[in-house]
Amino acid sequence: MYINISFFGRKKRHLSPSHSKTYATANRRRTAGRPDSFSKHDLLLFKRMRWITGSLALTILLICTVFSFQKTPAACRAEDLIPPAAAVAATDAAAVSEKTVYLTFDDGPSQNTASILDTLKEAGVPATFFVVSAENNEEFLPLLERTLAEGHCIGLHSCTHDYRKIYANTDAFWADIDALREKLQPYCGDASYPVLRFPGGSSNTVSHKYGGSGLMEELIRQAREQGYAVVDWNVTAEDSVGGNPSAATIASRVIRGCKEQNTAIVLMHDSSTNQATAEALPTIIRWLQENSYRFDTVDHLPQD
Ligand SMILES: [Zn+2]
């Protein structure tokens, strides 16, 4: 890095206009005392020859520079070709912290899933889908095959998503998860599901009403015992709280939330009513890419 900077620095100094001006002044001084036998024409010819020689030297220097770049290892090439100042800035930013975003979609698959997958594929980024299998979305379950094939992570959410049933007690919750796994089997085969997101989040209070205030603590303990990573979020699109937010509103909420996080776990929804979320996704991804976020799936989150 620093070698490149000093290399560019030397080149700049050698070719700088101020240096050329000094060089021309020195020439005028040198030619001032020449015998009159040199005609103006000879002097002009002499200057032109010197200009041609200088240009040839510069061309040779440029060719040598190009060859030296070609010998640079592939891993460094892109870095070498960007302006040195930008390269230093990028290195410093990486040294301070790497920004990572985990896009997550709950409550799918649905009629919006194909559009979400298209957007992710076009952008070349992965995401995580916390799925359900209720009566109204079973026809979209075959999309999970494509979801897995395109490198996304599938996490467990709930079969019925019915708080009253799943949070009645711990047995009821795991029976619901077993039913979900069974529904997924034809499309996901023996895929493992390393991550789980509780409906309402792991600190929800709605469960207190049905299973008591200690239920979530017990469920979290049991989930970890079974090898699941329990994943919540720290950024929300607020796209399932009613009011039908527009795509622009959803995008600005997610972007505002991500600005405050170096590790952003973004909660969005993929149910039949979340068309605006699918529409907001290209804007969200573009902003994250422009702001140097790395995209990953939540099964790669560091565990505490
Ligand atoms: Zn949900």
Which SSEs are present, and which pair or pack?
Blueprint lengths: L1 H14 L1 H16 L7 H31 L3 H8 L2 H13 L3 E9 L4 H11 L4 E5 L10 H7 L3 E6 L4 H4 L3 H19 L6 E2 L9 H6 L3 H11 L3 E2 L4 E2 L10 H13 L3 E7 L5 H16 L3 E2 L9
Parallel strand pairs: 1-2, 1-7, 1-8, 2-3, 4-5, 6-7
Helix pairs in contact: 6-13, 12-13
Bound molecules: zinc ion.
What this model shows, in words?
- The chain is α/β, with parallel strands linked by helices and 304 residues long.
- The chain has two domains: 2-96, no CATH class; 100-298, TIM Barrel.
- 56% of the residues lie in helices and 12% in strands.
- It has 13 helices and eight strands.
- The strands form two sheets. Strands 1, 2, 3, 6, 7 and 8 form a six-stranded parallel sheet that branches.
- Helix 12 (247-259) links the parallel strand 6 and strand 7.
- Helix 6 (113-123) runs parallel beside helix 13 and helix 12 (247-259) packs parallel to helix 13 (275-290).
- Mean pLDDT is 80; it is low at 1-37 and 62-96.
- Zinc ion (ZN) is lined by residues 106-107, 157, 161, 199.
Helix content: 55-70%
List the bound ligands: zinc ion
Q: What is the CATH third-level topology name of the largest domain?
A: TIM Barrel
- Report the end-to-end length measured between terminal Cα atoms: 36 Å
Q: What structural category arises from helix and sheet content?
A: alpha/beta
CATH C-level label of the largest domain: Alpha Beta
> How many domains make up the 3D coordinates?
2
Based on CA atoms alone, the radius of gyration comes out at: 31 Å
Mean pLDDT equals 80
In terms of per-residue confidence, which ranges show pLDDT below 50 for 5 or more consecutive residues?
A: 1-37, 62-96
- If helices are DSSP runs of H or I spanning 4 or more residues, what is the number of helices? 13
- Percent strand: 5-15%
Q: Give the second-level CATH assignment, the architecture of the largest domain.
A: Alpha-Beta Barrel
Shape: elongated
Largest sheet: 6 strands, parallel
Succession of helices and strands: HHHHHEHEHEHHEHHEEHEHE
CATH superfamily of the largest domain: Glycoside hydrolase/deacetylase
DSSP strand count? 8
